[in-house]
Amino acid sequence: MSKSSPDLFKRRLLWLVLTVLVVVTLSYLSHQRHTDLQSVTPLPVSLPHEGERIQEKEGGKEKEKEPEWTFVVGRDDLNYGLSDEQCDIAFPLLYQEIYRARDHLLKLNRTIKEKDVHVDRKGSYDGRTHGEFQCMILDGELYIIKEVRGEPDRSRGLAALANMYRAISSMPDARHQIPNIEFTFDIEDIAQEGEHNKERIRWTWARHKDNPWHWAMPDFDGWSYPDDGVASFVQFREDVAELEANYTREWYDKPQKLAWRGSFAQNGELRRALVKAAAGKSWSDVKPIDWHDRKDLLAMQDFCKYQYVAHTEGNSWSGRLRYLHVCDSVPVVHELSYAAHYYPLLVASGPSQNYVQVQRNWSDLVPQMEALLADPERTRAIAAESVRVFRDRYLTPAAEACYWRRLFRAWRAVMDFEPRTHYVHRDESRKRRGVSWERFAFRQEKSFEHGFLVEDNIKDEEPE
User: What InterPro entries would the database entry show (predicted)?
Assistant: First the structure.
């Protein structure tokens, strides 16, 4: 062996020892890192924003995770101040009539001009005067610029204004959350009656399906029907809830009858056809009424005691249907000529059916009723869907507030002028336009002020 052999052996042994130490150290560090990672508490998954949906795995399949906030009836149905995002989550299909009206103007490259929001001028229509309210929302405050008295009770207009005011004042920062707009609404049943201008733009309770120029707003019944026997819509919902709670088997405990009451004074031909079609049938509780003797009247909430409730249009649309939708009953409705703000949600067939549609002349009422009576499970599903869609969602007071605010914004999107705060006279003197809702709500023909009975002579006329 050479002299260098022992040194070579030592060097090789040293490298072997170092290699083993490195391997052992790396192995230990790897094990320790794995142990440390196992001991770390996992970070929570970030919650989605309102309206956002995320995907997650469950049983090997992807499913949608519900958004952070969801609408809960009994908790949120009287919440008039839902945010825009919450309104979209809760009522995604509610605004179809609004967008239809807005898009109609956009397609024509048409905007709302100041002349479009003036009340009717003399000579612009034939027949009776239309009841109208010209209004303005400015910095989150509601003003009434002019009122024209017509045939309908003006309480209809006051109800609409009260509903608007509630939708506005429920916002925490209405000055910045509600746009400045000016508009006129018509309180007649037939808002286009006698009008010379076929492109007259108005907010109305309902629009004829052939008239694309009218903007459907929630009708006055959403605040209160002008009759103590019906009361406010909120109270009516409470009364029906108490009534429905008495049925232990819910819909199945109700008589298998179709209920209707109505006068022939409005839409007589259509209503007589219903009475004739239902005459003598075991399932019929269909009766006309005469408002003079008030015989056979049925309180509005008592319609909810029946499995089936019939709806007919009146002079135009009829506010009856929104009340019938509060019932756990099957709405039976003829083909409609008018569209109210929520009518796009009516579904006449398929798995989401929420009412039964019959011919406008009621000629198929008998076979339709026979089919419903022969299939109670299908019929029960229709009633349940009506409750789910309308009573517990899209006809809640919360939904109506959301609709009003969306209407304000869509209207603003097609306005091409700014509402004016003042009239300017020829002598350059200025006068504030309109009366605030808080004052207008208490105006009357005569008022008792400062110990004197005086005329209320507030003038809203725009100077010439």
Answer: CAP10, O-Glucosyltr/Glycosyltrsf_90
399 and 384, same structural domain? no
- Cβ contacts of 151 within 8 Å, gap of 6 or more: 128, 129, 131, 188
Q: Are strands 215-216 and 61-65 parallel, antiparallel or unpaired?
A: unpaired
Do 350 and 423 fall into the same domain? no
Structure tokens belonging to residue 216: 């459907």
The pLDDT profile of the chain, 464 residues, written as one tens digit per residue, is 444 455 655 566 555 555 655 444 545 444 443 333 333 223 232 223 333 343 444 455 555 665 689 999 999 999 999 999 999 999 999 999 999 999 999 999 999 999 999 999 888 999 988 999 999 999 999 999 999 999 888 999 999 999 999 999 999 999 999 999 999 999 999 999 999 999 999 999 999 999 999 999 999 999 998 877 788 999 999 999 999 999 999 999 999 999 999 999 999 999 999 999 999 999 999 999 987 887 889 999 999 999 999 999 999 999 999 999 999 999 999 999 999 999 999 999 999 999 999 999 999 999 999 999 999 999 999 999 999 999 999 999 999 999 999 999 999 999 999 999 999 988 889 999 999 999 999 876 655 555 554 455 545 556 54
Check whether residue 200 and residue 101 sit in a common domain: yes
Q: How far is CA 61 from CA 44, 46, 55, 58, in A?
A: 22, 21, 10, 5
27 in any annotated domain: no
Query: What's the residue count for the chain?
Result: 464
DSSP 46: P
How many domains in the chain? 2
Question: What residues make up the domain containing 303?
Answer: 246-339+343-394
Is 253 found in the same domain as 385? yes
Task: Give yes or no: residues 266 and 366 share one domain.
Answer: yes
CATH of the domain at 304: 3.40.50.2000
Q: pTM of the full predicted structure?
A: 0.83
Per-residue tokens: 205: 């309770």
